[in-house]
Write a structure and sequence with these properties.
The structure holds 3 protein chains of 3 kinds. By secondary structure, chain B is mainly alpha-helical. Chain B is built from 15 helices and no strands. Chain C contains 13 helices and 12 strands. The chains are: A mainly alpha, B mainly alpha, C alpha/beta.
């Protein structure tokens, strides 16, 4: 394994450590967990007993490492508001969010990438200008506004698509999916467009500017001077070079889709983690907030690592360690 | 090809304000502004919204924040041109009987206030940390950049939501409404400082090794003064671009948080709050409560974004 | 007299800008014979590179050819449509750029880039093309070429990369190579090697070379003929020996005096006072007159044409007088 991936792994661990610290501080110091768990009529003795049993009287470092240990097993206690285990709640909500995020990410990549390539290759074409104006609107309109607009048009006015919920879902083990059912698919259309549109425009603009940048480089000029066909220059030489930064940013963007899902899920009452998190904020349900934070951080770290590995596959320069070792 | 006069002005380090101004009107930036109709329209629209938001008390027919002047009997009235319209309410009213036109004016005021304040907060914080980090280096730099790294792994909106959520629980219930806007400004500001810090830090690291900074150090000028007088002017271009684009982001973030119900209180609705209120009535056909604030918000953000885009392209060589 | 390989006539290149059109190359004419090495020398901004780019049809917008013609073997190539010009590029005219570090695509092995180019212009199979590529790499002096062919550009040093670039430019035996400052970005110690290699290869393959440089020393060693450019105009064209020894145009004289010499002992290298004017403020008459030590009245008013003075061509009024 090359050194830089190990370095990134260490970095990811630092990120997770920081986040865990924040989550821990929230858990212990934002409000009194005991106070949140029990009723008003609980006696002082009972409260103290609960405090003792939760380990809240232990030294802070001990509590912190216990918190990390529990977090590793994804145990965050009982939700104040739902009076259920946080783990169970997330297990129920996770499939909805992941399904939505995945479809949105796919949508933004599959549409955004070709649009960006086209706009980069033909910067003066009218279609490119249409794409650019469209992208500017996509970047400027807040996600929730796009959602409301879609609901207003397709649910309220035309009545074609459902305005909220997941439709019919199928259960496979603990996983639930709306993909195999017609009503599930119909319910997925508007939320995934809403969620994906912003990323789509970002990816498009990024690919376009990278493409323009790469087309100005010396090696593209040299490729032209060698008489290579436009096809070979654009899709062989230019596109591959734009992929390096595009993969990085796209990876980060896909990560943020999960976070942006909070807004989309609220607009469409999509029963995912984001909606759960937002309700937790309204109700000061700290265990859910802490758990959500840790989970999202974990997703981010995993995505970042995947991006790094892809990077490594695309760009031979990163395999420098090996090349140097051979002596050149 | 710049002429001789321009190139000597570039070499001379002291950036006198008047000099800068003179160069501005002679510059490519001013030229590209005059030759971009979209940019001109965008700045006119921005200006229009700014002025009408600032002058809201003089323009608006009603003060929507004054609960005493509201009449619930006036609620849910459609715009003037609709069948049940009321000539007193140009764009209709919302569920509390507020005149929508007035509320939009006052609402944009809040949106702009929060936007500008949080951008200023983020800018000052980010630029200071970037200068310190880049100029001093060492352990301080490492700590600041680690924090920045962790923060940048998360989308700003999530951070703002989280900070906002946590702060609200820390504030006594009674003060939440009063402090809501301050909390909001803090949350949005704190979620956006990293970009400034990173940009300023890297420019500072380049600048601080240049001869003129070394010379200033040798003759014993204090670091703070060197940073402010010599390094800061050289990084202002990119910071300005980030600031403009950040303003659009901050306005969207404010609107989003208010829409999610953790932003400004309903008693002082911003554009986002209004859209949230209207969203509840969308299904009963009362589209105007949502659509008018939505259009205002979209136009405002689009215009600011266009300005930022143009500014970035005009200053491009310095940014890259 | 045999027909020239390349014939450039009255070439003008201009740039439209918001402050009016700038004429970057102003009415220049010259010819290149098959197998000949012609040096083009001048300060930065004199229009050398633009001339080279316009010959291979890669002038970057907004720059454009505003007049004149370029003929390769009597066929006009300055107005060919892009798809036909592409067949000439690489196959008949090759180009070498200044910076070998950025001329190669970092993400592909040099073998892939060579084979791709060879296959674009010939009917060779991959195996044949690869074999040809290995031979080429050996020819340009890459040790262990058969192994190195699968390496990426970053695994080569600057000098080695420029050898690869030369191999790429020469891979289908073009008639003409435009070398735009091919050694400027390299270490001084490596410059001489690369120039020698370029010269040898072109002699072996019978390739003509336009060697663009601001280094008179390189031209003195390499070229058969030299063309001196100043502010977008040709001021002197002639045999290298002749021009170096006895430059006619005052600017060329100044340039030659600025070459350090090992044989002659001089106290101080002479320099030409002043700087070349920007494209916006090229003076009337002879562009060089404000800096010229022998400036006459006519120089301020009328532009001198390139005229035959013995074996060389010079654009200077002082020689017109001699002729009359």
């Amino acid at each position: 394994m090359p050194a830089f991936i190990i370095r990134r792994l260490l970095q990811s661990m630092i990120v997770m450590f920081f986040v865990a610290m924040v989550a821990f501080l929230m858990f212990n110091y934002v409000g009194d967990p005991v106070h949140q768990m029990v009723g008003i009529d609980t006696s002082f003795e009972d409260r103290e007993a609960l405090r003792e049993s939760l380990g809240l009287n232990d030294p802070v470092p001990v509590q912190f490492f216990r918190f990390i240990g529990n977090a590793a097993k994804f145990e965050f206690g009982i939700s104040y508001q739902h009076k259920r285990s946080v783990t169970g709640l997330f297990k129920e909500r996770l499939p909805a969010t992941l399904e939505l995020s995945f479809v949105a990410a796919l949508l933004s990549l599959v549409i955004g990438l070709p649009m960006g390539v086209y706009a980069g290759l033909k910067p003066d074409g009218w279609l490119s200008k249409v794409f650019l104006s469209f992208s500017l609107i996509g970047v400027s309109l807040p996600t929730f506004l796009i959602g409301i607009l879609l609901i207003f048009i397709f649910a309220v006015t035309l009545g074609w698509l459902p305005s909220y919920g997941r439709g019919e879902v199928m259960h496979i083990g603990w996983w639930s999916t709306g993909l195999p059912t017609i009503s599930g698919l119909k319910a997925l259309i508007m939320p995934s467009i809403t969620l994906g549109l912003f990323q789509l425009t970002l990816i498009m603009r990024l690919v376009r500017s990278e493409m323009l940048e790469v087309l100005r480089t010396d090696y593209i000029k040299f490729a032209r001077a060698r008489g290579l066909s436009n096809r070979a220059i654009y899709f062989g030489h230019a596109l591959k070079n734009t992929l390096v930064p595009v993969i990085t940013i796209t990876g980060l963007q896909i990560g943020s889709i999960i976070a942006f899902a909070i807004i989309t899920e609220t607009v469409f009452q999509w029963p995912g983690m984001g909606l759960l998190f937002l309700q937790a904020i309204h109700n000061v349900d700290i265990p859910i907030m802490a758990a959500y934070l840790m989970l999202v951080a974990f997703f981010f770290v995993v995505i970042n690592l995947t991006v790094d590995i892809l990077y490594y596959v695309v760009d031979p320069r990163l395999r420098l360690d090996l090349g140097k070792a051979n002596g050149s | 090809m710049s002429d001789l006069k321009n190139s000597t002005a570039d070499i001379a380090k002291p950036n006198l304000f008047i000099d800068t101004l003179k160069r501005f009107f002679d510059s490519d930036i001013f030229y590209s502004f005059c030759h971009s109709p979209v940019t001109i329209i965008a700045s006119l629209l921005t200006l229009l919204i700014f002025v009408s938001a600032l002058g809201a008390p003089f323009i608006a027919p009603q003060n929507p924040f004054d609960m005493g002047s509201l009449d619930l009997m006036d609620s849910h009235i459609p715009p003037v041109w609709a069948e049940d319209g009321d000539s007193r309410f140009l764009l209709g009213t919302e569920d509390q009987g507020r005149d929508l036109f007035s509320t939009i004016l006052y609402g944009s005021r809040i949106s702009l206030l929060v936007g500008f304040s949080s951008v200023s907060f983020a800018l000052i914080l980010g630029v200071s940390l970037g200068l310190i980090s880049g100029y001093l280096g060492g352990a301080i730099d490492a700590v600041i950049m680690r924090i920045a790294e962790v923060q940048i792994s998360f989308p700003a909106i999530l951070i703002a939501l989280l900070v906002d959520g946590v702060l609200r629980t820390l504030i006594p219930e009674a003060d939440v409404e009063q402090l809501a806007i301050t909390v909001l400004i803090f949350s949005i500001g704190i979620s956006g400082w990293v970009q400034y810090a990173r940009t300023v830090r890297s420019s500072t690291m380049v600048e601080k090794n240049k001869e003129y900074v070394l010379a200033a150090r040798v003759i014993g000028i204090r670091p703070v003064f060197i940073m402010l007088r010599h390094i800061l002017p050289n990084v202002m271009g990119p910071v300005l671009v980030i600031g403009t684009i950040h303003l659009a982001v901050a306005i969207v973030t404010e609107a989003t948080l208010s829409f999610l119900g953790v932003g400004v209180p309903v008693t002082q609705p911003s554009l986002g709050t209004l859209i949230r209120i209207g969203n509840d009535f969308l299904f009963s056909g009362e589209w105007w409560i949502t659509i008018f604030p939505a259009i205002t918000l979209a136009v405002l953000v689009l215009s600011v974004n266009l300005l930022g885009d143009w500014l970035r392209d005009a200053l491009n060589p310095k940014l890259r | 007299m045999n027909t020239p390989l390349l014939n450039v006539e009255n070439l003008c290149i201009e740039f439209p800008t918001r402050r009016g059109t700038l004429v970057a190359v102003d009415d220049i004419s010259f010819t290149i014979n098959p197998g000949e090495i012609v040096g083009v020398v001048g300060e930065s901004g004199a229009g050398k590179s633009l001339t080279g780019q316009s010959i291979i049809g890669l002038l970057e917008p907004p720059g454009r050819i505003a007049g004149g013609s370029i003929r390769l073997n009597d066929q006009r190539i300055d107005n060919l449509p892009e798809n036909q010009m592409r067949k000439i590029r690489g196959k008949k005219i090759g180009m070498i750029f200044q910076d070998p570090l950025t001329s190669l695509n970092p993400l592909y092995t040099i073998g892939k880039q060579l084979i791709e180019t060879i296959q674009t212009h010939t009917d060779m199979t991959v195996t044949q093309a690869r074999e040809h590529a290995v031979n080429l790499l050996e020819e340009v002096g890459i040790p262990a070429a058969a192994k190195r062919i699968d390496h990426y550009p970053y695994q080569f040093s600057g000098g080695m990369r420029q050898r690869v670039v030369i191999a790429l430019a020469l891979c289908v035996n073009p008639l003409l190579i435009i070398a735009d400052e091919p050694t400027t970005a390299l270490d001084v110690s490596i410059q001489a090697q690369i120039i020698t290699l370029l010269k040898k290869l072109c002699k072996d393959h019978g390739t003509a070379v336009i060697l663009i440089t601001h280094d008179m020393g390189v031209i003195a060693e390499t070229a058969d003929r030299v063309a001196v450019m100043y502010a977008g105009r040709l001021v002197e064209v002639g045999l290298v020996r002749q021009v170096v020894k006895q430059a006619a145009h005052p600017y060329a004289k100044g340039l030659m005096n600025a070459i350090p010499s090992l044989t002659k002992r001089v106290e101080k290298l002479t320099q030409i006072d002043g700087t070349m004017p920007g494209l916006k403020d090229i003076p009337n008459g002879c562009a060089f007159h404000p800096r010229c030590p022998d400036c006459m009245d006519i120089c301020r008013e009328k532009r001198p044409e390139l005229t035959d003075i013995g074996p060389t061509q010079v654009a200077c009024w002082s020689y017109h007088d001699c002729k009359h």
